[in-house]
Amino acid sequence: MRWFTPLGKVLALGAVGLSLGGAAGCGAGEDATAATAPAGAVPAAAARGAVLGPDGLGALRLGMSVRDAEGTGLIRVTGAEGGCTDFEPARRGAGGFASARYGVEYLGADAGVRTPQGVAIGSPRSAVARAYPRLTAAADDVAAAVPGNPRARYVFSFDGGAVSSIVLALATSACAA
User: Fold this and answer.
1) Distances (CA, A) of 18 to 46, 103, 143
2) pLDDT tens, 38-62?
3) 157 φ, ψ (degrees, to nearest 5)
4) Domain boundaries in the chain?
5) Signal peptide position in this chain (predicted)?
């Protein structure tokens, strides 16, 4: 069992080798620019909060070993399964998982964390589309290339037209189910 709920969706994206670099639009008739929630600014807590991306969250970086990740004091290891180590935030921040092969592969953000482009939990879908114009649809989520990090992607989930979760993940995963 993994810490962050939309993990299966993220792993499915990695398992099929979704390429974000050349993908335009959402495909399958979905319109990522359609706002289903009122347009608005980044939630106030997120505007002041920590930044997820392009390489990690503060001292917690994609690709770092579990040992180094624990050394940041930002995570607490919760278990291991199938060659992957699960972790959760020690206080607030990001939980996720890591593998021996790639290190930290997946960071799921808490409320109050934002991307460098200003997208946070609670941001409207239209804000995601403005910040990341080359979105790719996957199930109920959208994925976006991470500006400044070609090895990673963001995956945004929505509830009622607003961002309900943000994931920063390596494009390649050893933990795909």
Assistant:
1) 29, 20, 9
2) 333 333 444 457 899 999 999 999 9
3) -105, 155
4) 7-170
5) 1-28
